[in-house]
Amino acid sequence: MKLYLTGHDCKYAAEQMLLTLFPGERPEYPDTLPRPEDPSAQICAQREYGSGELLRVETRLHWGGRDWTGTWTGPLAGTAEEREWTLRHGVRLSFYQAGVQALGKEPPWGALTGVRPVKLPTRDMKRGLTRTEAGQRLEQIYRVSHRRAELALDCAQASLAAQAALNEHEVSLYVGIPFCPTRCAYCSFVSAGVGRTLKLVEPFLEALEREIAAAGRALAQAGRQVRTVYIGGGTPTTLSAPQLDRLMGTLAEHIDLSACTEYTVEAGRPDTITAEKLDVLRRRGAGRVSVNPQSMDGRVLSAMGRAHRAEDIVNAYTLVRERGIPCVNMDLIAGLPADSPAGFQSSLEQVLTLGPENITVHTLALKKGSQLMNGTQEGPALPSGEAVAGMLDYAWDTLAAAGQRPYYLYRQKYMSGSFENVGWTRPGFEGIYNICMMEELHTIVSLGGGGVTKLVDARRGRIQRLTNAKYPQEYLRDIDKALADKEKLPSFYSQG
Length: 496
What we know:
The protein is an alpha/beta fold. The protein folds into three domains: 102 residues, 2-Layer Sandwich (Double Stranded RNA Binding Domain), CATH 3.30.160; 44 residues; 326 residues, pyruvate-formate lyase- activating enzyme (Alpha-Beta Horseshoe), CATH 3.80.30. The chain has 17 helices and 15 strands. Strands 11-12-10-9-8-7-6-5-13 form a nine-stranded mixed sheet, sandwiched between helices. Strand 5, helix 6 and strand 6 form a beta-alpha-beta unit. Helix 6 runs parallel beside helix 7. The radius of gyration is 24 Å and the shape is globular. The chain starts with a strand and ends with a helix.
């Protein structure tokens, strides 16, 4: 879609709204006026003066062969930062008004964009607003639907509870293992399955051990304690039992885990789970394991490139329980190719019958680099946005009736129907790491492939990001940078 900005340069705000309303469109900024047949949006901002300074933003949208207009007006006052926020908000809301007229419907999250919608009600309630008042702000200012506002509020209350239980000297630790048995069609993370990258596993582990040692020294110097550990990927259980034992032993040797209350390992793929590996996880302190079916339908599993069957998932789950793991998470994805509302409902019911403490319901996101996004995946079509909405509504009602409650959520680009990912839990089994990571409550020290360290100083409102290379080859190449980044931890906390 051709975008014409007059009186402002809020490209990001305009593009966010374009992606929300018209996900199939990409922004263009031509120098010439649009042709009559071109989808376009002309977004004009101007200041008006009366009793005070006002901002008026008008969007003229050409879509579907018709013209649509959206207008937003509001006071322009406060600090330079507040005035800039007002301008961006006006651009979003005027574009939103024109867009929903053209589409004849509103997205579930209204004009609210960004990965972390829970931050807004959390901030409002910390400032003294009631739950009702915080929800009204989501609905009135950002046009969020009532149901999504309630979802955000539930997660905000879980975030506030987690914050109250945290010590300011605590951090979380993430270890990324960028290997999988095969590559799923929706995934953009690993460059190849472990069969093609097997020779990289040992050198990767050797480099990771060096980074673990560096992190241990930095955490000790900074006076930080590890509250949660999360080993993710990829699929960490792609590693052999001896390799897992070596990795988790190295963590225990170099990093003080005496204050750790939550230790999660993504077992993920059932075809990587064995009794020997689970014995290692339990002996080394892991009390939370993910067994992620994504679907219990064989056709859907095949369409997304998984080699296992639904019965393999059940067998893996049973094995986890037999090995004494007290908390199990299971993931499902709404919107997978070949799936249907009835198929998704059946998958959810089968997972609930197993009885995991956590169930995470994802919405399919078309990620750059994935087979689904780049067109290399052939096969069944994706369910419609309306079908995905039905899947999520069913999950919401069914999980709530089963005694589970939402405790964290996040959104991504290119999600089917512009929905969300939600973590559900039985009361008392909330994944603290997930809350801390998504709501940026404290520092996440990330090691291994694709990790993003977020150094958080909540008292001063500072966040610093340090990024590890994503793929195994790149991680090995850039290991010296990863080691140098870990040395920045003490100085971050010593800054006044």
